[in-house]
Amino acid sequence: MKLLVMNGPNLNLLGVREPDHYGTETYAGLCARIRSYCEENGVEVDFFQSNHEGAMVDEIQAAMGVYDGIVMNPAAYTHTSIAIPDALRAVKLPCVEVHISDVNAREEYRRISYVRPACIGAIVGHGTDGYLEAVDLLRKHLEGGA
Ligand code: DQA
Predict the structure, then answer these.
(1) Cβ pair 97, 122 in contact under 8 A
(2) Whole-model pTM above 0.90?
(3) Ligand 1, residues 18, 73, 111: which to mutate, most atoms within 8 A of Cβ?
(4) Does 13 map to a domain?
């Protein structure tokens, strides 16, 4: 099983960026933690981060035939992008949406996700551990258990 973990705009600044919302773990630290979790569970994993919507669409398209599933924190594009969920529907790869903060308990506009209808599930407000939960959800889905 091979998964792609995608992160959208400003998530490269994890650790520096608004720690009250996003904690103190750096992006590099998060990737290392996800990688070791995947290794322990026999899952291959690659990472992609971009501050550009089109680059994310390109990466989703390129994932077709290469990955079995996608873990994605689309960041601010969650609340604005139609191109990202369209790309997910086009490639038909199962995707789990992740948000580090509890987007439902913040500004009204963060409650809207255009990406969610194109996903098999969402993990919201569990901090960076949510990425590991998303890996588990995809594993269960791909192994036919969920
Ligand atoms: C976020 C929540 C979004 O509203 C925000 O724009 C982000 C991060 C989260 O992980 O909590 O950049 O996706």
Answers:
(1) yes
(2) yes
(3) 73
(4) yes
